[in-house]
Design a protein that fits this description.
This protein has eleven helices and eight strands. It is of the alpha/beta class.
Length: about 280
Amino acid sequence: MVKLIECPRDAMQGWPHPIPAREKAEYINQLLRVGFDTIDFGSFVSPKAVPQMADTAEVLSMIGPKPGDSRLLAIVANQRGAEQALQFKAIDYLGFPLSVSETFQQRNTNASIAEGLDRVSAILERCRRADRELVVYLSMGFGNPYGDDYSPQLVIDKAGLLASYGIRIISLADTVGLATPVQVNELTKAAIDALPGCEIGVHLHSTPLNWEAKLEAAINAGCKRIDGALKGVGGCPMAGNELVGNMDTEKMIGWLRQRNLLAGINDDSLLLAIQTATKLFA
């Protein structure tokens, strides 16, 4: 079965209009009733860099007891953010974006890749002490528009280095939607084959025209962890390009169900969440 990671944080972070904290919390509470494996709900990062996420702690205070088995993930970019996130027992996972592009690592976290790896090591140690897990996203995993060195082997090498640190969940991120289905299939399969001890996921951005081909490519590669966002909203504002949306979770659910690859989704709760997303992202 495939694990679906729903990413309202990615949908909201670049949204041009402020979304009140109460509305965010109501939406996340709805998503927790749907039956997703994980909800990527917020981030503890610079409020100047990502103002839409400045209220993540406030939002968390309004999230009720988890009604099912869904877990919460918060993105952090440094040790300070990790320490903030780890104060909240409701958070199960921390997520850290490590890029294979020096340019994007600076733009996204104000650090070099080497400094990013140091941060991974320090945050991982904090997670271990707090009995939480660190998920690392390999940003620009399928290429970048900046002219930085890139190759699939570079991505595999970075993933292998992370595995040697003790990272057990690595997600390959198509940050600006550059990947072709062939790239998704080949790189995802190579990472799964090279790192059998890791859970390899994909965080793919896509247009309404190519989501299905990318999803099929990842599934055929053996991937069982897929990120998405209802309505296909989102993208990384730090990329400095027009945002390319997330994979639309509603469409992925239908596709996966047809192939008996998904279980545990509550249709009534999903419908309510879709209605809320339609209003939030009108």
